[in-house]
Amino acid sequence: MNRRIIAVTAMEILDSRGYPTLRVFVDLADGMRGVASVPAGASTGREEAKELRDGPAKAYDRNRYGGRGVRLAIDSVQLAIAEALRYRDPVDQAVIDQILIELDGTPDKSRLGANAILGASMAVACAAAKAMAIPLYAHLGGPAACYLPVPMMNVINGGQHADNTLDFQEFMIPHGAGSYGEALRSGTEIYHALKRLLGSNGYETAVGDEGGVAPNLRSNEEACALIVEAIGAAGYEPGRDVAIALDPAASSFWSGDHYELAKSGGGRKNSSEMTAFYAAWFGRDRRHVHCRSRSRDGRPADQGRCAVPGRAGRKIQSPPGNRTRTRCCRPLREPLPQSRRRHRGC
Question: How many CA atoms lie less than 13 Å away from 314 in the CB half-sphere?
Answer without folding.
Answer: 0
